């Protein structure tokens, strides 16, 4: 099976712009989670989707949003980018009934 | 509240020495997972612990879940340079609420 894929791998934006990141889970996995990783804060949970429904949401401002499509692919959007949004954004998928998370390679976002 | 405290933040060892990282929660955990992230890589699942007092081994790695299911540890015997990376614990998810990672322990191994 192919692993979790994320696009794009690298992205440079300027303050005030918006960005959309994409995640394709492992085939058959219906749960997708998103994380922000920074050196200072570590891995922080953004949200989790299952069957197109948001199940859990972390403590991030409303500028961060996501969605999941019927094929389980997921996107996250960050609007009005701030310098502090520069981070590695990771998504992970898991199979129904299992807790093991399979991570993608991440999208490195730089906000200038 | 939901935090998972993980210590130490950094550990520098000589190759062949042992290494341990600890995670503590203020609330009882239904399960805890451990992940390893190599430099420049993404987290990779190591193991999940579910039962009170559970101990699992993977070669030189020993994972423990406390009797009260509020703490867990990962111990590496006789570290090797291939053990370099950051080790994270993770709780939650699905019906268990938000997924919360510990801050991680960054292990460096001097050959």
Structural notes for this entry:
The complex is a heterodimer of chains A (112) and B (111). Chain A has 112 residues and is mainly β. Helix content of chain A is 0%, strand content 54%. In chain A, strands 2, 4, 5, 6, 9, 10 and 11 form a seven-stranded mixed sheet that branches. Chain A has a four-stranded antiparallel sheet with strand order 1-3-8-7, with no helix packed on it. The mean pLDDT of chain A is 95. Chain B has 111 residues and is mainly beta. Helix content of chain B is 0%, strand content 52%. In chain B, the strands form two sheets. In chain B, strands 2, 4, 5, 9, 10 and 11 form a six-stranded mixed sheet that branches. In chain B, a hairpin with a 2-residue loop joins strand 6 and strand 7. Chains A and B meet through strand 4, strand 5, strand 6, strand 9 and strand 10 of A and strand 5 and strand 10 of B.
Low-confidence stretches of chain B: none
End-to-end gap of chain B: 40 Å
Q: Extract low-pLDDT stretches of chain A.
A: none
Mean pLDDT of chain B: 94
Can you lay out the helices and strands and say which pair or pack?
The complex is a heterodimer of chains A (112) and B (111).
Chain A (H helix, E strand, L loop, with lengths): L4 E3 L2 E4 L5 E6 L6 E8 L3 E9 L2 E5 L6 E5 L5 E5 L8 E8 L7 E2 L3 E5 L1
Parallel strand pairs in A: 2-11
Antiparallel strand pairs in A: 1-3, 3-8, 4-5, 4-9, 5-6, 7-8, 9-10, 9-11
Chain B lengths: L3 E4 L2 E5 L4 E7 L6 E6 L6 E6 L5 E4 L2 E5 L5 E6 L8 E7 L8 E2 L3 E6 L1
Parallel strand pairs in B: 2-11
Antiparallel strand pairs in B: 1-3, 3-8, 4-5, 4-9, 6-7, 7-8, 9-10, 9-11
Entry summary:
The complex is a heterodimer of chains A (112) and B (111). Chain A has strands spanning 5-7, 10-13, 19-24, 31-38, 42-50, 53-57, 64-68, 74-78, 87-94, 102-103, 107-111.
């Amino acid at each position: 099976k192919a692993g979790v894929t994320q696009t794009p791998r690298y992205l440079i934006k300027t303050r005030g712009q918006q960005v959309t990141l994409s995640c394709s889970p492992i085939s058959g996995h219906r749960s997708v989670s998103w994380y922000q990783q920074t050196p200072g804060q570590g891995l922080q949970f953004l949200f989790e989707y299952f069957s197109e429904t948001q199940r859990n949401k972390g403590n991030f401002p409303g500028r961060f949003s996501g969605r999941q499509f019927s094929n389980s692919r997921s996107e996250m959007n960050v609007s009005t980018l701030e310098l502090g949004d520069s981070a590695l954004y990771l998504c992970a998928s898991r199979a129904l009934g299992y807790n093991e998370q399979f991570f993608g390679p991440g999208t490195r976002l730089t906000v200038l | 509240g939901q935090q998972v405290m993980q210590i130490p933040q950094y550990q520098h060892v000589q190759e062949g020495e042992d290494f341990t990282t600890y995670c503590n929660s203020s609330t009882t955990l239904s399960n805890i997972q451990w992940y390893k992230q190599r430099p420049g890589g993404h987290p990779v699942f190591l193991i999940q612990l579910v039962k009170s007092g559970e101990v699992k081994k993977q070669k030189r790695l020993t994972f423990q879940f406390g009797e009260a299911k509020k703490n867990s540890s990962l111990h590496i015997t006789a570290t090797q340079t291939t053990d370099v990376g950051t080790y994270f614990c993770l709780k939650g998810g699905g019906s268990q609420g938000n997924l919360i990672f510990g801050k991680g322990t960054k292990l460096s191994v001097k050959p």
